């Protein structure tokens, strides 16, 4: 998965520096005209690092995430006495070297 930013020109999305294959499926998230997006310097640094990690391939796919969630639910059902947050599959969703 890639994250790319583009602009709309004549009703079509133009993404600079990216070649999109005809027929590719894309997801478009639109900002409202009056919507502002503000981050603290720390939040911006964290966001940029997360994007860089994804570009390096350090992420968990949607399928892997669902498998982890299912395993966590199964583990919780088998071990209801474990405190919340103590399950081995809990924690961050980012997996280095995935």
Question: How is the secondary structure organized here?
Answer:
Blueprint: E1 7-9, E2 12-14, H1 41-55, H2 62-78
Antiparallel strand pairs: 1-2
Structure, described:
The protein has 98 residues and is mainly alpha-helical. It has a domain at 60-81 and 93-98. It contains 2 helices and 2 strands. The radius of gyration is 19 Å and the shape is elongated. Residues 89-98 have low confidence and may be disordered.
Radius of gyration, whole Å: 19 Å
Q: State the low-pLDDT regions, or none.
A: 89-98
Q: What is the H-and-E element order?
A: EEHH
- Fraction of residues in helices? 25-40%
Distance from N terminus to C terminus (CA atoms, Å) equals: 13 Å
How many β strands by DSSP? Answer: 2
Shape verdict: elongated
Structural class: mainly alpha
Residue fraction in strands: 5-15%
Q: What do the pLDDT scores average to?
A: 78
Let me know the largest β-sheet. Answer: 2 strands, antiparallel
Strand order of the largest sheet: 1-2
Keywords summarizing the entry:
single chain; 98 residues; mainly alpha; 2 helices
Can you summarize this structure?
The chain has 98 residues and is mainly α. It contains two helices and two strands; from the N terminus they run E-E-H-H. It has a domain of 28 residues.
